[in-house]
Amino acid sequence: MSLPPPSTSQAYCNVSALEAGLIKLPDEMFITKATPGKVTLAPSLSFLLEHSETKKKVVFDLGIRKDYHNYPPVIVDWIKSTYPVEVEKDVFDSLKDGGLQPGDIDYVCLSHCHWDHTGDTTPFTKSKFVVGGACQTILQEPYPKNSKGRFAFDLLPEGRTEFLDPSSWNPIGPFSRAFDFYGDGSFYIIDAPGHLAGHINALARTSADGGWIYLAGDSAHHRNLITLESEIAVGHPGHVHSCAHEDKEAAQEHILRINKLMGLPRVQVLLAHDEPWYSKHKGGDSFLPGKIASL
């Protein structure tokens, strides 16, 4: 269950959080034992990971686009009716805070293709996009070809998108399928089934001597799930499926793996909608131009 020890002169990633909008999430839609009527104003976090040696830059998730009225109409209606958003700063504002532009980003890695994680992909005209291969199954009838489509036709750039196939990936820690992105043990893409087709997480070293961070995307929408204080809520009419996940059983199994990861030394786990972490760190040094301190 342990993670790989560092090698001599081990490369790692400097990880910075990026403001990328806020979303109102009714707790009862996501967790059991929720306070009735409680709505959490949660972040939709994005992250910048810079390789310590090559300085290659990955942005993991793009949060919510500031001009959210330009999402497909069915998404705009969903925002108005179910998931109100506030986007004072988007990922581009956050990158600018660190002296960066979209053209400086080598890779955009999307945990999955839901609108509150894809932002606006079009300004990243030089970046290579990295997504889970199974997401191709949900992109076959995009908007506007399908007027009710939830995914825009130009969401992923043709010719610059790598669809990852996890079938031949190797285990790492509690996870059965991981891809060593740079080939040096500094950054792994983790197969994270359950939430949506092609859902992936990220595991990165944060120091040369053994620190780690796990970016869990939408593997869970509330920290009570990964601490096992609550279970996945079901039966809410606001969801496309019976719960917040496409496959509840697979999502729960993955949550259990994340819980095991949390028990390992020097590992911090962040959710995309991690309101407790955000409330503690917003406006601080964990956000670009600062970085998240390694454990």
Multimerization status: single chain
- Tell me roughly what share of residues is in helical segments: 10-25%
Low-pLDDT segments, ≥5 res: none
State the helix count. 6
Number of domains: 1
Gyration radius (Cα, Å) is: 18 Å
Protein name: Metallo-beta-lactamase domain-containing protein
Cofactor: Zn(2+)
Pfam families: Lactamase_B (PF00753)
Family: Belongs to the metallo-beta-lactamase superfamily.
Write up this protein:
The chain is an alpha/beta fold. It has one domain: Ribonuclease Z/Hydroxyacylglutathione hydrolase-like (Metallo-beta-lactamase, Chain A, 4-Layer Sandwich), CATH 3.60.15. Helix content is 16%, strand content 23%. The protein has 6 helices and 15 strands. The chain has helices at residues 73-81, 91-97, 115-118, 223-226, 248-262, 275-281; strands at residues 13-18, 22-26, 39-43, 46-51, 57-60, 85-86, 107-109, 128-132, 161-164, 170-172, 175-180, 187-191, 200-205, 212-215, 267-270. The chain has a 6-stranded mixed β-sheet. A hairpin with an 8-residue loop joins strand 12 (187-191) and strand 13. The longest helix is centred in the C-terminal third of the chain and has 15 residues, at 248-262. The protein is globular, with a radius of gyration of 18 Å. The two termini are 19 Å apart. It comes from Agrocybe pediades. Pfam families: Lactamase_B. Residues 43-273 form the Metallo-beta-lactamase domain. InterPro entries: MBL_superfamily_lactonases (IPR051013), Metallo-B-lactamas (IPR001279), RibonucZ/Hydroxyglut_hydro (IPR036866). Keywords: Hydrolase, Metal-binding, Zinc.
